[in-house]
Write a structure and sequence with these properties.
Mean pLDDT: 94
Number of strands: 14
Low-confidence stretches: 1-7
Shape: globular
Number of helices: 8
Helix content: 25-40%
Largest sheet: 9 strands, antiparallel
Length: 266
């Protein structure tokens, strides 16, 4: 029986469809092993993509709209969309989840508050889950661990900053400054709007689509440049014309477009 969800969460039928989308069976119970499986599968099937921004598609941060885009239409999204809906899947499966805001590093500087959305998942200990940052950890990270954490995506370290923030480092390079206070998805709407509309946002100046591959590498397509990165870091690039790029989006990411997003000047 399809029980109604609390508030705007996912129904049982939607959970089954979401799990089918990422190719994972319903876990028996919440656990670190189940979380890791869901996390890795999500990264390999639901791409980080900003194509809709360039095509003028609205980004709506509510569960029905996110489900329709990521599951029903089998598209991808960026952090607010990917982690926003992943949080609802985890909650529907019995996990305790909080939304955390982060500021992304650009050199030594950080972006604005709510620049990024990541997740805290409480199991036997708190975990940092993030399926919406592009190239990042393949598996959840221990949120209370302060030593280096080895991951197939690299070495990660969480360094305290002040009293209620952590700098998340990947291979020694700071990626984002994570706040530890919980938020609602609605809190991210103003910054999401800026990211998708401002000419100063890099999301409005270029489009990208990227996902993990089965061997732990990565495949990325932006405009007409197709980049394949192996698990050992080897990299190949191929320039595609518009027709071949549209085919690549369909065959490599399951995304069918009738045109490419325009390339805008910085």
């Amino acid at each position: 029986m399809d029980h109604p969800p609390a508030l705007d969460g996912l129904t049982d039928t939607q959970v089954d469809a979401y799990l089918a989308r990422i190719g994972v069976l319903r876990p028996d119970r919440p656990s670190p092993v189940a979380l890791a499986e869901l996390h890795r599968a999500h990264l390999g099937t639901v791409p980080f993509e900003t194509l809709g921004i360039g095509l003028g598609e609205p980004v709506l941060l509510d569960t029905p709209a996110l489900f329709e885009k990521l599951v029903t239409r089998r598209r991808g999204g960026f952090c607010y969309e990917l982690n926003g809906l992943f949080a609802e899947l985890l909650r529907a499966l019995g996990h305790r989840v909080e939304l955390l805001g982060a500021r992304v590093f650009d050199g030594d500087r950080t972006g604005p508050p709510f620049d990024h959305l990541a997740l805290r998942v409480d199991l036997d200990e708190p975990w940092l889950a993030d399926v919406g940052f592009g190239r990042f950890s393949h598996l959840p990270l221990r949120l209370d661990e302060r030593g280096p954490q080895r991951d197939p995506g690299g070495e990660f370290t969480l360094v305290p900053h002040g009293g209620d923030e952590l700098d998340v480092l990947m291979d020694g390079r700071p990626e984002y400054r994570l706040g530890l206070r919980p938020h609602r998805l609605a809190d991210f709407v103003p910054t999401c709007w800026w990211q998708t509309t401002s000419p100063d946002s890099h999301f409005t100046r270029s489009s990208t689509c990227s996902r993990l591959t089965g061997d732990g590498g990565r495949i990325t397509l932006g405009g007409g440049r197709l980049i394949r990165t192996g698990p050992d870091g080897t990299r190949t690039e191929e320039l595609l014309d518009e027709a071949d790029a549209l085919v690549a989006y369909r065959e490599l990411f399951g995304i069918t477009l009738d045109r490419l997003p325009p390339v805008r000047a910085a």
